[in-house]
Structures are given as C-alpha cells and as structure tokens.
Amino acid sequence: MHILISNDDGYLAPGLLALVKAIRPLGKITVIAPEQNHSGASNSLTLSRPLSIHRVAGGERDGFIFINGTPTDCVHIAMTGFLDEKPDLVVSGINQGENMGEDVLYSGTVAAAVEGVMFGVPGIAFSQIDRGWARIDDAAKAAHDIVAQMIAKPLSKEEGNATLLNVNIPNRPYADLNRWRVTRLGNRHHSQPVVVQQNPRGESIYWIGAAGDAKDSSSGTDFHAIDEGCISITPMQLDLTHHARLAAMRANGWDRG
After folding, report:
1. CATH superfamily assigned to domain 2-186+215-252
2. Which family is annotated (predicted)?
C-alpha cells in the first residue's frame, strides 16, 4: 500500500506531521506538500511560472517533499511523472479548521484529495474542527483508524469513479472519537461582509469575511454529526451536472439545432 500525503497548510504544519506519524504503519508513505500555506486555494494549478521541488534532510520531517505551489500542484506533479508509480491512496490534511458544507468548494485540503480521484486514485481529506491544533495527535489517531478501514474494506468504484471522502474530526480526546457518522454536506448562510481597512497610503484594502454560520444542520448533515460530537465522513463525487435541470431544459426546448 503506497499512500501519498499532502495538505494545504504547508509542509511545516503540525497537522501534516501528526498525520504522517499516525498512518506510517499502514504502508509506504510519500509526503508532497506545499511550501507555504494555501488555505482557500481550491483546485488551482500554477500555470504562470515553473515549480521547484525540494526534499527535507534531517529532523522529524526527513524525506518530506515540498513544492512552491498549491495542494493541487503537489498531487498533480506526483501523478504525472514525479513518482515512479502511482500511489494507491491520497490522504490530505489534517487541516487546521473545519471543511463542511460549501467549504469543500474552496478547500485546498479537499482539492488535494480530489486531484487524486481525478487520476483514478481514492482520496480522503481530513480536517479538524477547531483551529489551533488542540488534540491534533488524537485526531491523527482517528484518521489512522479511518484510513485503516478504507484499506481493509475498500469502497468499490461507481461508474469508474474512485472513492472521495471528506472527514471532519472534533477536537476531542481519542477515547471520544469512536463514533463515526456517514453524512451529507450541509450548507451555510452567506459569508460575513467583507472587512474594509486603510493601508498606510490611505487606500482601501479588503479582507474576505468569515464563513457564514450553518444554515442546514439537520440530521444527516456533517454539521449535525459534529454538533453531536461525532466524526463526520461525507462521500463526495466530482460530477457537478444538475441532472434534473438538464432533463427539464431539454424538455423546455433549450436544445437547438
């Protein structure tokens, strides 16, 4: 079992190191992560400049590979020639902060797992709910258990698509992380307003506002599972086509020619 590990918080992030230590017993590990934090990078690829690859020598991150690019860059390069063999599984995280509901559309953590799936390799994205890395080793132990479950009982491909899981883990002791819930994505209210400030030259600068609070946190959602103190595991897919609307548009004459 060859496991490729990446993240979006950068190769120095405590969540990445904890994850690597926890799942190292499960197989051969290759770590390819961004040089710097790329939270919110989503599935972006760096096309405007060349990328550089470096390997850490010595210390507890010995052998980690880092790239001056995005999480998607890291997995894409691994899949398209950098590695001699394609990995069996892509694991991303552990992210500092939750990725629930619409967060998955912005998340670099999720994007790294998505990139593996685009190349036919199953992907799991791990995030910890609260920022600050509290209980990160406990979260990593729980991630180990989920990866071990994936290896022991792999989910079959549906219509040729590899499995994609988005996992959110509460900041709790490991003894409290034995309850898992398979969930759907909830959704949020709109983001908070943009924050306007002045730079030293008197020009306006803008900070993206905080994510909105949960709007749909009903039973069965990722938000509800986390509110109940459970780990949320959401199976996802890459097909963004609105199939019901597709049929309705055809029925209403949108097809021409």
Report:
1. Survival protein SurE-like phosphatase/nucleotidase (3.40.1210.10)
2. Belongs to the SurE nucleotidase family.
Residue closest to 116 by CA, chosen among 24, 220, 6, 244: 6
Which residues is 139 bridged to in the sheet?
none
In the DSSP assignment, the letter for residue 225 is H
Identify the helix (H) or strand (E) that includes residue 244. helix 243-251
Q: Can you say which residues are annotated as belonging to the binding site for a divalent metal cation?
A: 8-9, 39, 95
∠ Cα 110 112 115 (to 5°): 110
List, as one string, the DSSP characters of 62-121. Answer: TT-EEESS-HHHHHHHIIIIISSS--SEEEEEEEES---TTHHHH-HHHHHHHHHHHTT-
Residues 89-104 have a mean pLDDT of: 95
Could you state, in order of their start, the residue ranges of all structural domains in the chain? 2-186+215-252
Known binding residues = 8-9, 39, 95
Q: State how beta strands 231-236 and 180-182 pair.
A: parallel
Residue 161's pLDDT is 82
pTM: 0.92
Is 243 strand, coil or helix? helix
Backbone angles phi, psi at 128, to 5 degrees: -105, 140
